[in-house]
Design brief:
heterodimer, A: 304 residues, mainly alpha, 12 helices, B: 297 residues, 13 helices, disordered C terminus
């Protein structure tokens, strides 16, 4: 049973990519036509051949040329913007996960305490805010009202990018992503923790007279974290979706902003490559989370 | 049948009245439904008409000021309510239907049907939806209301289907279902009459979750200009505000109030969702704090 459950989960890449491929197969003709119009590569092939060609090109990293960026190869355009997104989304996702999980654990540990009464309802409400609007709110408050932080770009355009400058520009977008994504972590961790705290081994640990801190983090926390890791994988797609809009609001030079520019310019090769990239990135992250779960939780390894 | 229905209504009412989160959520939702049903009660003039002085701040004539085009912000907000509420309801409903059909069928049929349906569910679940939505909407060119609904339903049903499948699996081998099978009832009868009613609270929670997803994603789409930018909606308002640098030129009300409306609708759905979650999962219900317990005793 465990194997049955885990085989499709351990390799999410294959089925997802084949569906994805079909999706691309269906929409490729219009992109092909756009390509023909733009660059005159007018070869009329049937859909199947162009689909396989597309697959081969994707696998070798050849995504064609971007026609909104003056014919620069798509791979080059993306490589230029990718580090910004990786830095921003990676950092804020980790921050959100770590703080959210910790807060959720503490809230559940002191069930009915002040933290437990305030956190869940307020983050239910915050989770219902649109990401990009929280970004607008931050811009309005921190950049225009208080005049503290820059509101657009990834660095100061007049000088070459310096580390401190990049950090200052990253504060508001990162804060926006953390604030809107942290609620999910808090709630799932809290709910897992509530179930775990009722388990016998936690009672046992208490009966042994272990320190509360030790029970909280080493006994209950570790076990409540496992379902959260899977949740991490699930919600990553959601965080990335939000990050696209946040990048747009802040004109942040990452791939999300690039995707929207590509959409506006009807730059289909760039659009498809970005979508593929984002999907593959999410699948890799899910794969990593699954591997981590398997390493951390011996039960899921059983049955091999 | 009628008595059972009125009993359910009364039970729901009792639950809503007791649960503060549910009460707040339903109140907000009710007001927004009222506005979307009768927007004319709340808008003095044509909300789209550009007839007022541009960029006015707070005033009696314009409680929330005017836009950079000279439209009344308050009227626009009221007029925009309908589209967001409609998208929430329609997408929520269609997603729920799809989730129930796919999730319950998978669980009830088992075997290769279950494997296939689960695989499709998982694939849709892990694909990052918003980029997909953007790409589809971009290919669809002029996104009408129904394009947006279609895109959101296609990408939004999987989470619910997965949850419902798990729940239905746990119910499948209960005695009363086996009894129904032994009586020789048809599969559709067993599914509709015996299997689905016990899952009502989860189904409602799924409806609310899908509706919330629809509101936020639709707002995002409209914000980046992939909706129909000439219709009245909160996302479209944000699009125009952002494109005209509302924040930079000192019109924060124009740029921030539509977001507050989206957040209101979203919070109402999220609060109700959470309350229903507590119904279907008793472990999550609030516990009495020691002080409260003393007060009772």
């Amino acid at each position: 049973m465990t194997v049955n459950f885990f085989i499709p989960r351990l390799m999410p890449g294959n089925p997802a990519e084949s569906i994805l491929g079909q999706f691309h197969g269906h929409i490729n003709p219009s992109a092909l036509k756009a390509l023909e119009a733009a660059f005159g590569i007018g070869k009329h092939q049937n859909i199947l051949i162009s689909y396989f060609e597309y697959l081969r090109n994707s696998l070798t990293g050849n995504f064609g040329a971007s026609f909104s960026q003056g014919g620069t190869p798509v791979a080059t355009v993306i490589a230029h913007d990718l580090p910004w997104t990786l830095g921003l989304v990676g950092l804020s996702t980790i921050l959100g996960f770590v703080f959210g999980t910790a807060l959720g654990a503490i809230a559940a540990w002191r069930r009915g305490g002040r933290l437990d009464n305030v956190l869940p309802p307020s983050f239910i409400i915050i989770s219902a805010f649109p990401y990009f609007w929280v970004g607008l709110l931050c811009i309005w408050f921190f950049s225009f009202t208080l005049n503290w932080l820059p509101y657009e770009g990834g660095f100061n355009q007049t000088s070459s990018p310096a580390f401190g400058d990049i950090m200052i520009h990253a504060i508001l977008p990162a804060f926006t992503i953390v604030i809107t994504s942290i609620g999910g972590w808090i709630l799932t961790m809290r709910n897992n923790m509530i179930t775990v705290v009722a388990e016998d081994y936690v009672k046992m640990a208490r009966a042994k007279g272990l320190k509360n801190q030790r029970i909280l983090w080493q006994y209950a926390g570790r076990n409540a974290l496992l379902p959260n890791l899977t949740g991490f994988a699930m919600s990553l797609g959601f965080v990335i979706s939000g990050a696209i809009l946040v990048e747009d609001v802040f004109n942040y030079p990452g791939v999300g902003f690039l995707l929207l520019q590509a959409v506006n310019a009807e730059d289909y090769p760039l659009m498809q490559a970005l979508f593929l990239l984002i999907t593959v990135a999410v699948l890799i992250a899910i794969f990593c989370a699954d591997v981590a779960t398997a390493i951390l939780d011996p039960r899921t390894r059983g049955g091999n | 049948m009628l008595r059972r229905l009125s009993g359910a209504v009364r039970a729901t009412w009792r639950f809503v009245r007791r649960d503060k989160k549910a009460l707040a959520g339903s109140l907000i939702l009710f007001v927004l439904l009222l506005i979307s049903a009768f927007p004319n009660w709340f808008t003095p003039d044509d909300p789209a008409a550009e007839i007022y002085p541009r960029g006015v701040g707070l005033s009696w004539a314009h409680p929330l000021g005017t836009t950079g085009f000279g439209q009344d912000v308050f009227s626009q907000l009221m007029a925009g309510t309908r589209q967001s509420v409609m998208i929430a309801l329609v997408v929520g409903f269609l997603c729920t239907v799809l989730s129930v059909v796919i999730g319950v069928t998978a669980a009830y049929m088992g075997g290769i049907i279950d494997d296939t349906l689960s695989l499709i569910t998982d694939v849709i679940l892990v694909i990052p939806t918003f980029p997909l939505v953007i790409v589809i909407a971009a290919y669809a060119k002029s996104a009408t209301f129904w394009t947006i609904v279609f895109v959101l339903v296609v990408t939004g049903w999987s989470y619910g289907a997965r949850q419902l499948r798990v729940q239905a699996l746990s119910l499948r081998n209960r005695d009363y279902l086996l009894a129904a099978k032994a009586r020789g009832e048809a599969p559709w009868y067993i599914i509709a009459v015996e299997l689905i009613p016990p899952m009502t609270s989860l189904i409602v929670a799924n409806f609310l979750g899908a509706a919330l997803y629809a509101v936020l994603t639709a707002a995002g789409l409209q914000f980046i200009g992939l909706g129909n930018v000439n219709t009245e909606s909160w996302g479209t308002m944000l699009y125009w505000a952002q494109n005209n640098d509302a924040l930079q030129v000192g019109l924060p009300l124009w740029a921030l109030t539509p977001g507050i409306m989206i957040a209101l609708l979203g919070s109402a759905l999220a609060l109700l969702n959470y309350a229903f979650d507590e119904v279907s999962n008793p472990a999550l219900r609030p516990v009495a704090t020691p002080r409260q317990r003393k007060a009772v005793a």
